[in-house]
Amino acid sequence: MTAPGIDTQVLVVGAGPVGLMLAGELRLGGAGVTVLEQLAAPTTESRASTLHARTMEILEQRGLAEELGDPPNGGPGHFGGIALDLTLPGPYPGQWKVPQARTEELLAGWATGLGAELRRGHRVVGITDRGDHVEVEVEVAAATPPSAGGGGPTSRRLRAQYVVGCDGEESIVRRLAGFPFPGEDATKELLRADIAGIDVPNRRFERHPRGLAIASRGPTGITRVMAHGYGTPARPRTEAPSFEEVTRLWADITGEDISGGTPVWLNAFGNARRQVSRYRMGRVLLAGDAAHRQMPVGGQALNLGLQDAVNLGWKLAAHLRGTGLLDSYHAERHPVGRRVLGNIAAQALLLLGGQDVEELRSVFRGLIGLPEARAHLAGMISGLDVRYDMAGGGEGEHPLLGARLPAYRLHTAAGPAGTLGLLRSGRGVLLDLGKDPALAAAARRWADGRVTHVRAEAEPGCRGPEFGAALVRPDGHLAWIDGTPADLDAALRRWFGAPNPGTGTPAPRHRA
């Protein structure tokens, strides 16, 4: 229920993958949400097209992975243009190719199907945090353009309990709310173009004497090319590069003429590295590229943003019900973002450097050949190694505590089930493989839509969980494993609020 004078509990600004993922997560948690998007229609540009293993697991957690059908495996990954096998244990080894337009379509259908409202043609022009709510000034595009007899944009004021900027690296929410955004501007850049009607060899991080060339022909016949001239500084840009600039650079590096093709999409991206000091300022929060700017190498930017959204969504919804979890969003995701920006900066040195980095590249090739080094880099890029601090990092802590719930095949009272499917409702799960009566009694105290108690055993012939019982947060991370009843009670209180005063008594539902 929305408070009097409030239009919606949460305004999400930006209907890209991150904003739509967040909207769906908020709705699963029971929050009212409206998404504002300045574009009148969804983009058809391919943009980011790589989904990593952890993101695929998250989509399966919400019942969305199967809707993608059977996306092609993205083949071997890389670290700074050096081949890197991203395969790690799990249901989605490697990386997967899904055009961004398809990801947006999937998430939009899911979020709006859950009750999120999506308003297109809405451009945010002002944000004021009033302490107990946020006022947002919006310009709404006319349904009919002035050239066809319509009027210009109209102004509207919306009030929300919280606003989340998911509006990309040029975030208007970040600017209007005054988030500090320290870091470094780009010093080098890549030009990128999707081009129809050209026939050039596929090139995977091909290093020529004058620059780097990458080319990949997609199933529709469109070829994506990327190019960087060694020693060429990044140019200040307010718009995409021209097709002539791209073709000139490509010819300079490869000697090939691609000027006869038809450009479908053009852009430039550099090695800028920035991250907001705080992911939350009062009642305004940021997620995805609005919170961190990085070179989109290897698809990490999109995946990092989607994982921001999944961490934030259930916490903000719970906060609106009276559980004080919101500051843990910054505490958990800011270090993850900082680490990703660091590994991307290292990759940029290897990828965009000229002959001066060849010796360093040789050293990395040797290190990547070592199994432990390969697994370390693969876990970092895929997001599979993210582990949050659940218990202060004390001695004797279970090695999976704070990590994601691995994918196991289980047998439950309802029949066979995978562990990831247990999270479809967006609730916490108390997974009980030992049928301990005390666990059922504990779970009943939070059994009001916050935590589900699941008794299970490993499927015959399948590898079972490495624990007897575990508390799983809605985002899939393990918050308690095989500890004492007192530790379980503390974990339930920390992540799901106070227990019901009596079995079946609803918890407080909303908070201003």
Task: Provide key terms for this protein.
globular; Glutaredoxin; 512 residues; eight-stranded mixed sheet; 3 domains; single chain; Alpha-Beta Plaits; FAD/NAD(P)-binding domain; alpha+beta; disordered C terminus; six-stranded mixed sheet
Oligomerization category of the chains in this entry: single chain
- The appropriate CATH architecture of the largest domain is 3-Layer(bba) Sandwich
Main sheet record: 8 strands, mixed
As residue ranges, the low-confidence spans are 504-512
Average pLDDT, rounded to a whole number, is: 92
Helix content: 25-40%
CATH fold topology of the largest domain: FAD/NAD(P)-binding domain
Q: In the residues, how many domains can be counted?
A: 3
CATH superfamily of the largest domain: FAD/NAD(P)-binding domain
| Proportion in β-strands | 25-35%
The Rg value, from CA coordinates, equals 24 Å
N-to-C terminal Cα separation, in Å? Answer: 11 Å
Keywords: FAD, Flavoprotein
GO molecular function: FAD binding; oxidoreductase activity, acting on paired donors, with incorporation or reduction of molecular oxygen, NAD(P)H as one donor, and incorporation of one atom of oxygen
Domain FAD-binding: 7-341
Organism: Streptomyces chattanoogensis
